[in-house]
Amino acid sequence: ISSITIGKGSDKGLDKSMSDIAMVQNALQDNHMNLVSQNGIVLQLGSRPLNDMIGTFAVGLFGSLYSNISLNANADRLRLIIEAGGQYYELKITDDGYTYGLSNQTDYNQHSLIASLQDTNTQNAHSIYMTSFVLSEIPVGYARTFYFKNGNLNIGIAGKLMNSVSMQSKIAITTKTNFNAEMNKIVQDFKNTTMDKAIGVDVGAVYEIDLPKFRYLTLGLVGKNLNSPTFTSTLQDITIKPQARAGIAYYTQSGFNLAFDVDLTQNDIIAFSTKDQKSQMVGGGAGFMWKGFDLRLGAMKDLRQDNGLILTGGINVLGLIDIALQSSTKFTDIQGYPMPQYLSLRVGGSLSW
What distance in Å separates the CA atoms of residue 323 and residue 315, rounded to the nearest whole number? Predict the structure, then answer.
């Protein structure tokens, strides 16, 4: 017998095993874990008379940290081909069922996941990539409000001096890899960071509707890093591609508000997995303000990642401390424990006077 095909649904235990194997294959191709920290201070110089004459000016200082770890699998070496008693067999998993059939030594050497782990040539191996990217920005902004009969139009532009400090490391995954030695090497690599500079451009516009019986409706549009600033790094350049987002919000004097926004562009995720990972969010929610507390509930969807609906919630205390949690409704079973495929916890705060 050179090939056997078993239809999906014929055996629950087999279906579960095949599902676990497929999950591992998918995880090798599409995975990343990020840690992001963003901090800044802004000084705004402006008043209503000054704005009416020439506009408002602002200068800021921002510092951001982006740390990422991802597994970059060799896409050509993920097939489930095994060697047994001098013969070679391949397992193929589809939506309809599972096929177990004969293979050959050439395919095993060139495409097998098992053979790739035994390969001593690290250039062909699956690898773990670790990236630390520290970005400091000094934006100088200008904005002007134009007053109309039934609304106000606010337009702003900012030029940014951007400085990066980055470090990238790569660990080949093979049966010969000494992970202790590799981790020690990474610690040493932190002393050999790469620095670079670039210029960035942001623009934005907000239109506020002001009708006698209908107020507090705001429409917004923002474009960031329109000139694609690029920074040299250890292994490959890091480019921050242009991003655009549009939104609409409705506020009431009672403290209740509604908001909706959407990414107009596909945004790159700073990760080095097999797939060129993108993110494009669309979402909305409601907020409630009560005696210094701000409670938010909503939902969003990533149009470029198959994470299901993402539920969101947050609380702000006195405008100083803000905590937000986002979790997808699509879960992955890991060692018997359900884990959301997308999970984000954000803690921050602000102070203005």
Answer: 6
- Decide: residue 98, CB within 10 A, 0-12 exposed, 13-18 middle, 19+ buried: buried
Distance, in Å, from the CA atom of 167 to the CA atom of 317, rounded to the nearest integer, reads 36
Assess whether 13 and 150 both reside in one domain: no
Identify any residues that bridge with 279 across adjacent strands, giving them in sequence order. Answer: 267
The answer to the question of residue 197 being in a domain is: yes
Radius of gyration of the chain (CA): 26
CA-wise closest residue to 78 among 7, 173, 158, 171: 173
56, 50 contact by CB (below 8 A): yes
State the residue range of the domain holding 262.
37-71+128-269
Same domain, 198 and 300: no
Burial track 15-46 (b if 16+ CB lie within 10 A, e otherwise): eeebeeeeeebeebebbbeeeeeeeeeeeeeb
**Are 237 and 309 in the same domain?**
no
pLDDT for residue 87 is more than 90: no
Confidence of residue 26 (pLDDT cuts 50, 70, 90): low
> Smallest Cα–Cα separation from 199: which of 225, 224, 223, 234?
225
Kindly tell me if the per-residue pLDDT of 274 is higher than 50: no
Same domain, 159 and 288: no
Claim to verify: residue 240 and residue 133 sit in the same structural domain? yes
Per the domain annotation, does 275 fall within a domain? Answer: no
Number of domains into which the chain is organized = 3
Instruction: Calculate the CA dihedral of residues 139, 142, 147, 153 and round it to 10 degrees.
Output: -40
- Tell me the pLDDT tens digit for each residue of 165-220: 888 777 777 777 777 777 777 766 666 788 999 999 999 999 999 877 777 899 99
CA distance 118 to 121: 9
pTM of the model: 0.69
- DSSP assignment string, 31-87: --EEEEEEEEEEEEE--HHHHHHT-EEEEEEEEEEEEEEEEE--TTS-BEEEEETTE
- Residue 23 phi, psi dihedral angles, 5° rounding: -65, -40
